[in-house]
Amino acid sequence: MRTEVNFKTINQLAVPATISGIAEPILSITDTAIVGNIPVDGLESLAAAGIVGSFLSMLIWVLGQTRSSISAIISQYLGAGKLEEVKNLPAQAIFFNILLSIFLLLSTIFIVEEIFSLFEATGKILQYCISYYSIRVWGFPLTLFTFAVFGIFRGLQNTYYPMIIALIGAVLNIILDFIFVYGIDGLIPAMYLEGAAWASLISQAVMAILVFVLLLKKTEISLKLVFPLNKEIKRLVIMSLNLFVRALALNAALIIAVREATALGDRYIGAHTIAINLWLFAAFFIDGYGAAGNSMGGKLLGAKDYKGLWKLSKKIITYGLLISLILMAFGFIFYKPIGHIFSNESIVLETFYGIFFIVILGLPMNTLAFVFDGLFKGLGEMKYLRNVLLTATFLGFIPALYLGKYLGWGFYAIWIAFIVWMLIRGLALVWKFRRKFKPLVQNS
């Protein structure tokens, strides 16, 4: 059956994917906004939430790559009309992924202080990092499981169920944040930063349970582990390993940025926490069209519909750029109020406002990278994605950051480096796509 590439079919995938995609950054943003306004040690709590959030995001992104690999393989087999051949693959992939996540959880829980000392966290901030992480880390396997099942649904061209789960999780997290952080007189004591951690953990558990039930009830995909291993397990492992290395490079940039901001002082890590959460929120917002490219791109490739694939690439980048322009306008119009959502510390807000315009102006470049990144994952081009991220990080982001630091640009150097990073990523993906698929379109 031919896949129609039009506004309706793309947005049927992109809109729900956008909503489900922003669930994780909404959890972090909610924590940031509420924690930043804690009446006792608000600045230290905000800094700790930012440092721990960055580290957890690294772990999730590094080990959550099975999601994209599963989605790519399922969508390609769906397009080729051979879905039955990979029905036992998701259970095998998820089983090994969860085992790995539990191993890493148990490995890090005993060296928490050493981990966050590497982020330049000291004193009260370090103690808050330890207490916050010691609770939130138990949600790590739950999030990886949820992400993997989201990948299965995406491969089946269904982003609606992940959207429902993500909405439930986000709303629940916000409600629990207010209850646990600030407390309820006579019923629940204020737990401040630890309350935010418990709110996130409970929300992640609920999402994992709901997505498990939906997978069993709404699909024919079984999570029962059966042997022998599926013939595609080798390709899935190779794809995941390439994305694993890619995620390490990606998170190297994010962690170095956090470390440099922390080294500048509390006001800078507080401002960076706000800025990076907004950057990630916009990234996942734009990434909805990357998700549509992921789902539809894999299916079109499986069907060898190269003209449809070319048409898809043009449409999703157009829609993504429109979204980025709307976000830019929103950011400039509400420039000051946005900062006040996250903190009442004037020194943090002053620092944040000094670089927020860079975050906003970088959105179109981010769109190129995020949209084509999703498309390339659907096409199974994981090796190239790996090489692009390695190049962008080690020949773009890091040199730009330390050159700016050497020139005395301070906090600006971090966010100028992000601009360089995203520019390299976006342009490299556009060039590769045109070079590989334009001849196929002309010959089809």
From TrEMBL:
Gene Ontology MF term list: antiporter activity; xenobiotic transmembrane transporter activity
GO CC term (a single one): plasma membrane
Topology with respect to the bilayer: Multi-pass membrane protein
Intracellular or extracellular location(s): Cell membrane
Transmembrane intervals: 46-64, 93-112, 132-153, 160-184, 196-216, 236-257, 269-289, 316-335, 347-372, 384-403, 409-431
Keyword Acetylation: no
Keywords of the record: Antiport, Cell membrane, Ion transport, Membrane, Transmembrane, Transmembrane helix, Transport
Biological processes per GO annotation: monoatomic ion transport
Family statement drawn from the similarity comment of this UniProt entry: Belongs to the multi antimicrobial extrusion (MATE) (TC 2.A.66.1) family.
Protein name: Multidrug-efflux transporter
Organism classification: Bacteria, Pseudomonadati, Bacteroidota, Flavobacteriia, Flavobacteriales
